[in-house]
Design brief:
Blueprint lengths: L2 H11 L5 H42 L3 E5 L5 E2 L2 H9 L3 E16 L2 E10 L3 H4 L2 H4 E4 L8 E5 H7 L10 E6 L13 E12 L3 H4 L2 E5 H8 L5 E2 L1 E6 L5 H11 L4 E5 H4 L1 H39 L1 H9 L4 H37 L16 H23 L4 H4 L1
Parallel strand pairs: 4-9, 6-8
Antiparallel strand pairs: 1-11, 1-12, 2-10, 3-4, 3-7, 3-11, 5-8, 6-9, 7-8
Helix pairs in contact: 1-13, 2-11, 2-13, 2-14, 11-13, 11-14, 13-14
Length: 399
């Protein structure tokens, strides 16, 4: 057996010569355990929060969305539709017409976006998951579905046939119109449903049929603003994007779901990183108790160290004894901390120990990455602290 490892193991699991040394060592070991446990809980909490925040984008955003490279519209011919259908991996696609509009209901104004969709839209987006009241669109052109935020702002209910929602959009052209009544195209519709995704999206869209949006914007047939696409599970996204670019001769911009929500992803990743760094800083402070405990152990074992030196142990070997002792303390403490953190997360998932609301427990998610990151972080810090402590052993101490 390796000599330094054998002695280090004996020192780690044996009591010191005084209660003070034992207490200091126990506090250091507890700091390692708590540091690892806290870091694992924080990472699991943010992983769960990230999934919870992004699950709504899976209801509302397509796998791939096509935008015009320039201007506001895309020319989408029957030939291009057939080619798009033939691409392996595309299950459904929906033609979209989207534009900023002005809304008015009972003399209350609101600014939003109209989003005209075709019948395939329900196959691309899980509309059943976002509708909270009423129904989704049918083929009736005089129907719309509004967001929860728009509904509250306008006091707009469902199926209110006494008052209609008026939708206005500026007419294209140059200069100031002489007749203000001719400055806008407008249509009227009945709200038949209310959707809810998040605060931002709930105040953004009024869904309509594609024909109503086309009539409002005076767009000719074959002109749309976007195409939203649903992909098969496990399909190579880059392959599909390349095939789409060939169909449109690289005259479009294509974004996946992550790119459509890049601001949200950046925010969540930044919050996760900041929390990781804060908890790691706390863990560093706690783990340097290991350095203190090793130094106290060196003082306590001073006579034993001299004996080892006198019987032939070299200075590097003696330093290695206490380096291994601190490293063993760190590794075992991090494993115990990970186990306790795992138990706490399981209890949170099963019993909702911490609640966001009365019915919604704080979301958590256990990942292999969390185990790996915590173990590496705590172990590296502990080894560095042990290395600094063991470097205090020198010839003066031995003599």
């Amino acid at each position: 057996m390796n000599f330094p490892y054998y002695i280090a193991k004996r020192y780690l699991f044996s009591s010191g010569s005084s209660n003070a040394i034992n207490i200091i060592t126990g506090i250091a070991a507890m700091g390692v355990v708590i540091g690892a446990m806290a870091l694992f809980i924080v990472l699991s909490g943010f992983a769960g929060l990230k999934d919870f925040s992004l699950q709504f984008s899976t209801y509302f955003d397509p796998d791939i969305k096509i935008f015009p490279a320039s201007g506001k519209t895309i020319t989408f011919t029957d030939s291009q539709k057939e080619k798009l259908k033939a691409i392996e991996g595309i299950t459904y696609f929906s033609e979209i017409i989207e534009e900023r509009v002005f809304l008015e209901f009972k003399e209350k104004p609101f600014t939003a976006y109209i989003k005209g969709v075709d019948q395939n839209y329900t196959n691309v987006i899980a509309t059943d998951s976002i509708i909270v009241f009423g129904d989704w669109l049918t083929n009736n052109e005089a129907q719309v579905v509004v967001g929860n935020g728009i509904s509250r702002a306008l006091s707009l209910g469902v199926n209110d046939y006494r008052d209609v929602l008026k939708i206005f959009v500026p007419r294209p052209g140059k200069g100031q119109p002489t007749d203000p009544t001719k400055a806008f195209n407008h249509e009227s519709a009945i709200n038949i449903g209310i959707y809810s995704v998040n605060e931002e999206q709930d105040e953004k869209y009024v869904f309509s049929t594609l024909s109503l949006a086309r009539k409002l914007l005076r767009l000719p047939e074959g002109k749309i603003t976007n195409i939203e696409i649903n992909l098969e599970e496990g399909i190579e996204e880059s392959f599909v994007i390349d095939q789409i670019q060939k169909i449109f001769e690289n005259d479009v911009v294509i974004k996946n779901r992550v790119q459509l929500n890049d601001t949200l992803y950046k925010m969540l990743n930044t919050e996760n990183l900041v929390s990781y760094l804060v908890v790691t800083l706390i863990a560093i402070i706690a783990l340097f108790n290991v350095a203190g405990a090793i130094i106290m152990m060196v003082i306590d074992k001073k006579k034993n160290i001299k004996t080892l030196y006198n019987i032939g142990a070299t200075l590097p070997e003696i330093k290695k004894i206490f380096l291994i002792q601190g490293s063993l303390m760190t590794v075992l403490g991090s494993l115990l901390g990970l186990f306790l953190g795992f138990i706490i997360i399981i209890l949170q998932q099963q019993f909702g120990l911490i609640m966001i609301t009365s019915v919604l427990p704080y979301p958590t998610k256990i990942t292999v990455t969390s185990f790996f990151v915590v173990f590496i972080t705590i172990t590296v810090i502990g080894v560095v602290a042990s290395l600094l402590a063991s470097s205090r052993i020198n010839q003066r101490l031995l003599k």
